[in-house]
Each structure stands twice: as structure tokens, then as C-alpha cells.
Amino acid sequence: MTTALTRSAARPRRRRNGTYGDHPATGYLFLSPWILGALLMFLGPMLASLYLSFTDYDLFSSPTWIGLENYERMLTDDPRFGNSVWATLKFVVFGVPIQLAAALGVALLLNRASRMSGFYRSAFYAPSLLGGSVALALVWRSLFTADGPADQLSELFGVPSRGWVNDPQLALAVLVLLIVWQFGAPMVIFLAGLKQIPQELYDAASVDGANAWQRFRAITVPMLSPVIFFNLVLNTINAFQVFNAAFIVSGGTGGPSDTTLFYTLYLWRKGFVEFNMGYASAMAWVLLLGIALVTGLIFRSARSWVHYAGEKR
Amino acid sequence: MTPARLRKLAWHALVLAIVAVMLYPLVWMLASSLKPSREIVTSVALIPRTWEWSNYAAALEPRVGVPVWRFFLNTALISAGAVAGNILTCSLAAYAFARLRFRLRTPMFVFMLATIMLPYHVVLIPQYTIFQQLGMVDSFWPLVLPKFLATDAFFVFLMVQFVRQLPQDLDEAARIDGCGPFRIFTLVILPLLRPALITTAIFTFIWTWNDFFQQLIYLSSPDNYTLPLALRLFVDTQESVANFGPMFALSVLSMLPVLLFFAAFQRYLVDGMATSGLKG
Fold first, then answer.
1. H helix runs in B118-210, sequence order
2. Which of A28, A251, B21, B240 has the fewest CB atoms within 10 Å distance of its CB?
3. Domain B63-274 has CATH 1.10.3720.10
């Protein structure tokens, strides 16, 4: 999909019979809501927030220019900022790969004809749909609260615990489990990808004596690599911005001891609790750069492990 | 029993076991909504010892002085507005990007794609300032108006992909019959676009219904609260511990429309998501 994306942007398809360009204004007319939105909701605000990131701004009085001070403070004088970066990175680094592994594993399991397939797919997908909701975050919080089901389970295994959500060592794991639990969305995309792999490849490999693991390594992974790549990029970007779950599970604080103070949660606190809009804007730009950097790295690494059928790169 | 049958049975057993783990939190929530508050947190069981139907009555009692139906209505209004906005303007934009020709099309298309990746937080504060200047903070406008400006680029992209695979001959034929771009759009493209429109509508509805961040920022007076904001009250107030039953009852009620949508359209949802790469 990502290739389709860049390809179509670079090379608009040629029209057979000229164009509809008799009235060049028509295109802009159809696009006018989007153009307005692009200017008022994206382009303008982006420039404005870049400017605000160099100011001290409390929303009520006009912003005063302070240069790089916000950025400096972030790096040198704000341990909570460091905590939020650290918590978010841990969440992304643990959550996304485990989530995708679960998605791929279950997709492989489901990738066979059965009358029950539809039901199974829907059952696995349901958590993804509800995952971001406050209602579900409340359930999650209760599951991992003191003496709750999770505690009882860990006691069953002889590990005493007094509420995962109150334990600085475990609070983040609760949120990681939540994102892992929502593997249904990438799973459905994996399933669609698996369906595209020609069965003959597997048959030929079997004839050559390849076992299941070898078939997985030599056929499934390379053939599925564009889909893996797509899921990896999208889920990473989304995981960086997770907010609802962290907010509800920690009661808006990011506790205990800031271990679940995710980046967006801290940004919200800075902007909309402390009314430090300049600082929050600077944080937003650092987030953008961070996400761009990480996706850039994933894109770069993709050259060595993503294979596109019938497309030499 | 033949080995093949046995293997099939084992497969079903394994998948069902995973399904059970996956669905446990949801079923536990449903069960908890019917348990006495004291029993809930400490109980792993899925069947209440005593059935506490009064949780639902308690859940529907006014919160912060506002009747609960009002939260439902507010959420429904915002969701309906968002759906209408996305259907209308994303399809217009998609048609222009996929079929019309104009000088800035390619740069604009690239920008549209870039906005899919853009973290919302980068535009958050200036957007807030704009709506504040317009006097729209603490109203539904900031949550609905942007949808009428095709800001959900993901759906524009989804529809562009869809329009592109429609045969060009249909447009040509309509054009030869004397249709202008506007009539081609309404008479030819829109009807064929229906599956993409339905996917967009369902996802917009569910995402808006479940959204919390924007509602948290823009809505402040209890009269304007949505369901997620009302549920959040259970986190803030100290009453929460004693009020687990009603909390779960309201959670179940708030999820009901999404679950019903899911049950009714699950085919569309899952297929639409697989083909378009949409995230849930």
C-alpha cells in the first residue's frame, strides 16, 4: 500500500482521452472544502505552532518571544519530560512488536478455510474497535487494580501483587497489554496479505522437502514483508500518540511515579492544565521530529527486508 | 476418529481458547455491570452471585446534574455531524484528486497524504486558539466543523483509491451524453462509491463515538458532556470505589451502539479494513 501511495503521487495516471480540464477551476471547486481545511486546520496551525514553540504563551495574553528556551528547558531542566519520552519509547518498543507478532501468529492460525472463520475474525477484531474507548480503559483499570482479577491470577502463580496499576514496575505493562490485546486490526490486514500468497509456492517448497518453519521463513515472511512494513509504520505512529488509555488508567496523572506519563499525556498537562501553550507547542514539534526520525529509520531498514513482488528496487 | 478430523478439532479448540482470553475482559465487564459493587473487583467469576439489576437504574441517574440521556444525545449529535461531514467533503475531494485535472493536483495530493502521518498535536494548540477566537470552545463546532473541511485525509485517500479502480469508460460515456463534472460525480461516481462511503461512515461513527481527547479539550460545561467525558467522572471522583456497578453499567450502555454497529456491519468493517488498511 505504501508503494501504491508513493507511486500514485509521483506518476498520476494518464487520461486516455485528454482530460476534464475544459474548466480548470472545476478541480479547485470540488476541492474547496479540502483546500480550506488544509489551510485553516493544517498549514496555518502548523506554522503558528512552530512560531508558538519559540514563545511563552498562556492562551490569554499574547505570546512573548523567548527563542529556544522551551527546547532548552525540555532537554536540561525538565526531568518529567525525560520520563515521558522514556515511558513512551518503552511502550512503543515493547507494545508494537508484541502486538504485531500476536497479530501475525493468529493470522497464520486463522489462514485456513473454516465455516467459523467469520466469527473468529470478528471476535479477534472486536477489541481493536473498542480499544480506544474510555469505557474499555475503565474496565482495564479495574482488571488490574488491587485484588482484581490480574492480582488473583498472579497469586495463582505464587507472585503476590497489590494492584498492577499502582506498581511502578508493572503499570506500564498494563498499557502494553492493552495495545497487544488490540492486535485485531493488524491481524485482519495480515490475513488479507496471506491470502495473496500463491499456494503453489508452498506446494513447490513442500515437494522440495521444506518443513513448516522453512516455508514460513523463505516464503511467508518475504511475501508478506510489504504488509509487515505497513503495519509496523502505522502502528508505531499510532502508538507514539496513545493517550486515552494512559489518561484513564492513571486517572490523568501518568502515575505511579510518572511511569505511565506518556508523551501526549504530558503535552496535554503542559498545555491544558498548566496553560503553558508555548512549551506544549515545542513538545508537539519534538514529537513530530521524533516520529519522522523513527519512521525514517523504519523506511531505511525496509530496503533490506521488504520485498515487492514483480518490482525491482 | 481420523487424524485429519482430530487435527481440525484441535485447531478449533486452540482458536476458541484464544478467543476466550480475548473476549474475557468484555464479558467480565458485562458480568460486572450486574454484580453488587463490592463483589466486582475481587471477583474473577463471570456469573454474578447476586444479580444487581439496579446498577442500570443507578447508571441512568443524572450525573453532575445532567440527565444521562443528554450525554447519549450529545455523543450521537457529534457522531452524526462527523459522519455527514466526512461523507460529503471527503468524496468531493477524492473525486477531484482521482479524476479531475488541475495544475496543483499533485502537490496537493502529496500534502493530503502527509497529513495522514502528521501527529494531531502539531496543529492542536493553534486550532484551539482559532476556535477560541471564534467563540466556539465549549460547543460541538470544533468537533464537527473540521469534518466538513475534509480533514480526515485517511478517508479521502481511501476514496481516491476506490474511484481510481472504477472504469474510466463510465465517466466518458456520461461526458459524451453531455454530463458535466458535477453530474458525473453525483450520477456516476457517488452511487458506485457506496461501499467506500459505508466504510467511511461506520469508521467515522465509531471513532467519533469513542473519541476522548478532543472532547476533553473542547467541551467543559456538563450540559455539553459526551459519554466518554461522563464516564471519566468515575475516575475523578472518590465515589468511584463504591460505584463500580453503575460505572460498568454505564460503560456497557455506552459501548452498545458501537457493538450493535459492529454486529450489523461486521462484514463491511472487517473487509473494508483489510482492503484499505484502516486501523481500528
1. 121-133, 141-144, 153-164, 168-176, 181-183, 190-192, 194-210
2. B21
3. yes
Q: Looking at per-residue confidence, does B18 or B263 come out higher?
A: B18
Which sequence spans correspond to the domains of chain A? 68-303
pLDDT digits (tens, 9 = 90+) for A4-43: 444 444 444 444 444 444 567 899 999 999 999 999 999 9
User: In the predicted model, is pLDDT for residue B230 greater than 50?
Assistant: yes
Q: Do the chains contact at A13 and B279, CB–CB below 8 Å?
A: no
Chain A residues near residue B255 by CB distance under 8 angstroms: 130, 133, 135-136
pLDDT in tens, A150-197: 888 888 887 877 788 888 889 999 999 999 999 999 999 999 999 989
Cross-chain residue pair B121–A264, CB shorter than 8 Å: yes
Say yes or no: domain A68-303 is CATH 3.40.50.1450.
no
Q: Cβ(A188)–Cβ(B270) under 8 Å?
A: yes
Q: In B, which residues are within 8 Å of A48 by CB distance?
A: 125-126, 129
The Cα diameter of chain A in Å comes to 76
A287–B44 CB contact, under 8 Å: no
pLDDT exceeding 70 applies to what percent of chain B? 94
CB B268 within 8 A of CB B202: yes
Helix (H) or strand (E) holding A65: strand A64-65
Out of B105, B213, B274, name the one closest to residue A189 (CB).
B274
Which residues of chain A neighbour B109 with C-beta distances below 8 Å? 9
